[in-house]
TrEMBL record:
GO molecular function: oxidoreductase activity, acting on the aldehyde or oxo group of donors, NAD or NADP as acceptor
Transmembrane segments: none
Protein name: Acetaldehyde dehydrogenase (Acetylating)
Domain Aldehyde dehydrogenase: from-to ranges: 7-270
Native source organism of the sequence: candidate division LCP-89 bacterium B3_LCP
């Protein structure tokens, strides 16, 4: 069979299997879900090293040690955050507004897995999907099929042993674009988690399904004159070189305030950064940028010295990153885009206002909605940046890579970072299991149109009573009236001093008292 057709057929079969698990997943209790996701996270954590090794060997991208760290973050750190989250049954009860929230699974999740962070992304997406009681079908990048399938095998086995249905975690083995399109558009798919190239993310948004996607992260880092420069530079170097720059939240440009510019340059050199000459920048441009535009995938996730070698010049193997002094942003400066490698632009500005303008230029050239970093000790300036920048993560005095995903900040731990409607995404949040549940609302009347007691608490005496014949009947129902005949004599009115009689036998109050007295005088046998 044609490979495209085989891919489409495989997807349909996988979706059918995943969809068959929906009833069983829906019946899981919160305790069940927590036990299963904990087992998945533990299994992924234990396999972090082997999965990292597979990812580096298969894709050729990134650094083994950092991929181990990412795998551990996507399991143990993620679990610590999601463990207390309520995703089953009543998740919130409001005794004042009388609106209670109930979690419902969304359904089958289609997950697009990138080649830059395949194992960590697959671990994260599977765990948050199952936490929300959704089955998941993954579409791996063609360059990362084996390692992504292995993630699914590891997690599926752990989940089943903990009580999950068999086909709740599945992965394509024939990842053609035709199959991926079928996965996103098939009626059995209910929601899409898309991480990948711009074209693929746009395809996810146009698939006619709710989609959470990640846009490009052309992240500027502004070092303002009050910053702790030594720490700021160390943070930027650690972030930019982490997994050789494959994380979309990593810094792409340094914007240095003039009074501290020389100190920033000195600290960068102290941290083994290499400042490129104009001719070297031109050579890098030819090597890194494709003739049709966009980044040459051959340089993605490669160490700095290898990229320099590809461009025709040499730097020492200890070089942490290549720094490109630039004067402009945009099409005439093609390296001012997201580079997914340890290559970073460098701009000089005078004052935070110019820093603000330069950061906006950078973001408008491919980073809207994603992330910005400011290194400063001036709270007023920090807040001005937060108010005016078109991003949804403004990080302060922290590495961008680690801060945006919630490793060094209080943000939700996540590897899918929403860029909001400004970038075409349905969320601006770090995506968590709570984004993968529908919320049903149980709402009681608080502003009645009509009077009447609608108290829902059980009060038998209010709704039921014994009538004078000792029959238990609804309060609003009257006891049956005795039959009367037109020719019957009227009942005589009680005479003065006479006693009231009870029941059909006409027993009097004195007779009742005598019965009670006699009962009280009886001795127990």
């Amino acid at each position: 069979m044609d490979r495209d057709l085989s891919s489409v057929q495989e997807v349909r079969e996988l979706l059918s299997r995943a969809e068959s698990t929906l009833p069983a997943l829906k019946e899981l209790s919160q305790e069940d879900v927590n036990r299963i996701t904990e087992a998945m996270a533990d299994a992924g954590y234990q396999a972090a090293e082997s999965l990292a090794k597979m990812a580096v060997e298969e894709t050729g991208f990134g650094k083994y040690e950092d991929k181990v760290t990412k795998n551990r973050f996507a399991t143990r750190n993620l679990l610590q955050y999601i463990a207390p989250l309520k995703t089953v049954g009543f998740i919130e009860e409001d005794s004042v507004g009388k609106v209670h929230k109930i979690a419902e699974p969304m359904g089958v999740v289609a997950a697009i897995i990138p080649s830059t962070n395949p194992t960590s992304t697959a671990l994260y997406k599977a765990i948050i999907a199952i936490k929300a009681r959704n089955p998941i079908v993954m579409s791996p990048h063609p360059a990362a099929v084996r390692c992504t399938i292995e993630v699914c095998n590891v997690l599926s086995g752990a989940a089943q042993r903990a009580g999950a249905p068999k086909d709740a975690i599945l992965c394509m083995s024939i990842p053609e674009m035709s199959g991926t399109q079928e996965l996103m558009k098939n009626p059995s798919t209910h929601v899409i988690l898309a991480t990948g190239g711009t074209g693929l993310v746009k395809a996810a948004y146009s698939a006619g399904k709710p989609a959470f996607g990640v846009g490009p992260g052309n992240v500027p880092a502004f070092i303002e004159r009050t910053a702790n420069v030594r720490k700021a530079v160390k943070d930027i170097v650690a972030s930019k070189t982490f997994d050789y720059g494959t994380v979309c939240a990593s810094e792409q440009s340094i914007v240095a305030d003039l009074p501290v510019k020389d100190e920033v340059v000195a600290e960068l050199k102290r941290n083994n950064a290499y400042f490129c000459t104009s001719s070297e920048i031109a050579a890098l441009e030819k090597t890194m940028i494709k003739s049709t535009g966009g980044i040459n995938s051959g340089i993605v996730g490669q160490p700095a010295h290898r990229i320099a070698e590809m461009a025709g010049f040499e730097v020492t193997p200890e070089t942490s990153m290549l720094v490109l002094p630039m004067t402009g942003v945009g099409k005439d400066y093609p390296l001012s885009i997201e580079k997914l490698s340890p290559v970073i632009c460098f701009y000089e500005v005078d004052g935070w206002e110019q820093g603000c303008e330069k950061s906006l230029e950078i973001l408008n050239f491919g980073g809207i909605g994603h992330t910005l970093v400011i290194h400063s000790r001036d709270e007023k300036i920090i807040r001005e940046f937060a108010l005016k920048k078109p991003v949804f993560r403004v990080l302060v005095n922290t590495p961008a890579t680690h801060g945006a995903i919630g490793y060094t900040t209080g943000l939700e731990p996540a590897l899918t970072l929403g860029c909001g409607t400004w970038a075409g995404s349905s969320t601006s949040d770090n995506v968590t299991p709570l984004h993968l549940i529908n919320i049903k609302r149980l709402a009681y009347e608080t502003n009645p149109l009509h009077e009447g007691d609608t108290t829902t608490e059980s009060k038998p005496t209010a709704r039921w009573r014994y009538d004078d014949q000792y029959h238990y009947r609804p309060a609003e129902e009257e006891a049956a009236k005795p039959e009367t005949h037109a020719d019957a004599p009227a009942s005589p009115s009680p005479l003065p001093g006479s006693q009231r009689q009870y029941g059909t036998s006409g027993i009097t109050e004195d007779q009742i008292d005598a019965i009670i007295k006699e009962f009280g005088n009886q001795k127990p046998e």
